[in-house]
């Protein structure tokens, strides 16, 4: 499965994947205030700002999943409902782990919404370990919202080729 850089022309499609997937996974477990501000337009704006770091799976113009990194964090990973169970999420997380390792990260981390059991099971199957709860500072149009989330970590440093690790 080919994981590639996102194209600017895909922002609207990616925003739809993110919006639909986020609502599917979070609408029932997130605070109502957060759900109100997580609009399709907000996801579009966030994708536009992160575009150089967004990696996708899917034909050009028709992405079905994406992720992006924020320093040593797998910051976002979402897959369209129609692509779940097809290996898209595995391809994305493997690519993310490799890129983190190549960037010199030894231990990567991610935040998972408390109660998002489907995502938690996926991360755990991929070797990520829940280490506790931490407070995530979420940017919203109304300012920063503090939200408790599960923190997962995984050692990824060993994934880089020897030459990259020697830098």
CATH architectural label: 3-Layer(aba) Sandwich
**Number of structural units classed as domains:** 1
> Unreliable segments (pLDDT under 50, ≥5 consecutive)?
163-167
CATH topology: Aminopeptidase
Number of distinct helices: 6
Question: CATH superfamily assignment?
Answer: Gcn5-related N-acetyltransferase (GNAT)
In the sheet with the most strands, the strands line up as: 1-2-3-4
The proportion of residues in beta strands is: 25-35%
Mean pLDDT: 94
What is the global morphology?
globular
Just give the CATH class: Alpha Beta
Percentage of residues in helical conformation: 25-40%
Largest sheet: 4 strands, antiparallel
Q: What is the compact description of this entry?
A:
The protein is of the alpha+beta class. The protein is built from 6 helices and 7 strands, in the order E-H-H-H-E-E-E-H-E-H-E-E-H.
Describe this structure in words.
It is built from 6 helices and 7 strands. The protein is of the alpha+beta class and 167 residues long. It has a single domain, classed as Gcn5-related N-acetyltransferase (GNAT) (Aminopeptidase, 3-Layer(aba) Sandwich), CATH 3.40.630. Strand 3 and strand 4 form a beta hairpin. The chain is globular.
Question: Which tags fit this structure?
Answer:
three-stranded antiparallel sheet, four-stranded antiparallel sheet, Aminopeptidase, disordered C terminus, alpha+beta, 167 residues, 37% helix
